[in-house]
């Protein structure tokens, strides 16, 4: 089941909304300051840190692929939490926009819809090796037209799932951002056809005005040798 937890808003007409808005702005400023202090490239790093604290996504000796990795905040978290340099972990970032290099990070520049890009990711993973974690913080350039923005990110979600089918291994993790809207039910239906269980989580570090929900899940229908070679949905958290 897909558990959708829409953003909570205080509907108190007598000052509650203003107080919450003030608090949300202060929280936003706090994460910006923390990112500068902790040398993360974006405040988005704290969303992934909070998801990992909740779901224990990362561990040593993992292969991680970060789609839409620019400017590098999520890749920085993956590098730290998988202990790259102290283990056999590998973190591969993919983006159409080149970013400043991160130490011990592999960067692939390209469009994830292009076969050449996916081939480059597979080479970086290693021969016959799959990713343990697939991250996607990809989002469209927000226009402010919520219906259009929702459709755009839903399309990105489907592209992410296409990539997932080719590079993510058995019992791997998928963490993917989406926006709530009319197509959410269709996305849910698709996910439920592929996943045994899907959880949705909205980390505290999410921008207060955002409609996004970040999914932390375990992976999809793949050939599982422990199941007699039959395809089955693995368990998701």
TrEMBL record:
Belongs to the class I-like SAM-binding methyltransferase superfamily. RNA methyltransferase RlmE family. This is rRNA methyltransferase 2, mitochondrial. Residues 40-213 form the Ribosomal RNA methyltransferase FtsJ domain. The active site is at 177 (proton acceptor). It comes from the Eukaryota. The keyword Plastid does not apply. InterPro entries: RNA_methyltr_RlmE, RNA_MeTrfase_FtsJ_dom, rRNA-MeTfrase_E, SAM-dependent_MTases_sf. One of its GO terms (molecular function) is rRNA (uridine-2'-O-)-methyltransferase activity. Keywords: Methyltransferase, rRNA processing, S-adenosyl-L-methionine, Transferase. HAMAP family: RNA_methyltr_E. It holds the Pfam family FtsJ.
